[in-house]
Amino acid sequence: MGVVMSIEEIVGSLDSGMTIGIGGWGSRRKPMALVRAICRSPLTDLTVVSYGGPDVGLLCAAGKVRRVIAPFVTLDSIALEPHFRAARQSGAVEFTEYDEGMFMFGLLAGAHRLPFLPTRAGLGSDVMRVNPGLRTVRSPYEDGEELVAVPALTTDAALVHLDLADTRGNGRYLGPDPYLDDLFVKAAGRAYLSCERMVEPGELGGPPQTLLVSRMHVTGVVETPDGGHFTERGSGRERDEAFQRHYAASAADPEAWAAFAGRFLSGDEAAYQEAVRRWHEQDGDRDHGRGEAR
Amino acid sequence: MSASSAARAEICVVACAEAWRGDGEVLAAAMGTCSILGARLARLTFEPGLLTTDGGALLTAEPVALGAPAGAVEGWLPFREHLWLVQNGRRHVMMGASQIDRHGNTNISAIGDWARPKSQLLGARGAPGNTIADPTSYWIPRHSTRVFVPAVDMVSGVGFDRAAALGPRASRFHGLRRVVTDLAVLDFATPDGSMRLVSVHPGVDVERVVAATGFDLVVEGDVPQTRQPSDEELRLIREVLDPKCLRDREVRA
């Protein structure tokens, strides 16, 4: 059963050198409040397992990452993640590049205590070349087909962000897509759940199939209002496109990034949320002319 | 509104739609504006059995305008189900490519040496699985020698030579259907699976396509023109599927 923790307590329980799974997909329902807290922590040398978005970008920019394991890193409405690109192009991070289906099979294997799962995805592609550790396996039946044996993607800890959670660590998603968050949680040694809103046990409501994450897999849960910002969430909170554009534009230039980091990332989560609110009031809508109301 | 007034982007939308002709009841998975419009146009006209999405996790009851809410829904396809569907095979995907070679190997991962790329792109995304498991086509909005290269820097999507090397069993679900660009339609209907020029878009000559292609293209006899949209297709594109003319941002007139 999960216990209610603070952002700082969760991040404080992680260690340098760990392999961390991060839920969500691209720039969608990412546990950004926890990611931001890792960025300002002394943690380093992390291996990050993610359908990558600004979580991977921010952690790369903060120098927290040794290796990224991902099928892609994208901001969705902005195709390429500038910090991840810079980190790859400067050789600052190592990269395990998988097909996105392979990646799911790795999570499925990890979630079900299997050493690997077979799939066709990857055969014939350079994913096999750039991951020389990947092996194939031959079907023991008469078809004798050779398939990729995707190794289990187990992690030391998983961080996922859901729209609703209760104080025990049960979590519910409100959008149309659960992503692979339940698999991230099950494939992890321990899992931490952040949520837009926390309720008492029994008050999660909704159709039961939206109860994606069970307390049996959760170590700690924290309420982080707007903690998924600036990524898309399912609770009627669209991606903050204006702010994401500001993030991406800033990330492309060292001076602009220093200003961005100073303004938004130098304080705690409450300071971040306040700085974003002020940005929308002062600069966002004027500078971009398309700033969405938050 | 006459067919002769069709803009290049509209020619491209119809050429993309043609990729799904004859596919029946499969998911038309599309990436890129003209490709998405093509999938929805095909469903509205000659391939009504196709399934199309809202661009997200919802299978829409009817094709909707680009960027519009899903409206009535007939199915649910979150990413996990989409990834399973790739394995299941009732799907024909039209992807983009930053590089493509004569056998249809494609790269969306990185330009330059993979270990330390000159330009990091998306990552392999679903390209390896898509190409080995499902019929695959490509939509490339800028036909140029930067994209059509002798050899791709990283094989994200598997071409015919790579598939053949895997043997008939492992490659039995591989099949590249067509490549649509802003200049032409191409396919791989040659003995060794080399890329062939199928048609050039109105206003484009064969020499221009050859010059924009960084490898030897198979050109057989007189190359026909890509077909014009019908009046009804133009109406559907302009009034129903893309009233905001987002297609013109992808392909210049």
Automatic annotation (TrEMBL), chain A:
Superkingdom of origin:
Bacteria
Q: Which SMART domains match?
A: CoA_trans
Q: Which SUPFAM superfamilies match?
A: NagB/RpiA/CoA transferase-like
Q: One GO MF term, please?
A: CoA-transferase activity
Q: Which InterPro entries match?
A: CoA_trans_fam_I (IPR004165), NagB/RpiA_transferase-like (IPR037171)
Q: Which Pfam families match?
A: CoA_trans
Q: Which UniProt keywords apply?
A: Transferase
Keyword flag Transferase = yes
What PANTHER family does this protein's entry cite?
ACETATE COA-TRANSFERASE SUBUNIT ALPHA, KETOACID-COENZYME A TRANSFERASE
Protein name listed in UniProt: CoA-transferase
Its taxonomic path starts at: Bacteria, Bacillati, Actinomycetota, Actinomycetes, Streptosporangiales
From TrEMBL, chain B:
Q: Cross-referenced SMART domains, in alphabetical order? A: CoA_trans
- Give the SUPFAM superfamilies listed for this entry: NagB/RpiA/CoA transferase-like (SSF100950)
Q: Could you state a single Gene Ontology molecular function term? A: CoA-transferase activity
* InterPro entries given in the database record: CoA_trans_fam_I, NagB/RpiA_transferase-like
List, alphabetically, the Pfam families matched. CoA_trans
The source's superkingdom equals Bacteria
Task: Tell me where the transmembrane regions lie.
Answer: none
Q: Give the record's family classification.
A: Belongs to the 3-oxoacid CoA-transferase subunit B family.
> What name appears for this protein in its UniProt entry?
CoA-transferase
* Origin species: Planotetraspora kaengkrachanensis
> Lineage of this protein's species?
Bacteria, Bacillati, Actinomycetota, Actinomycetes, Streptosporangiales
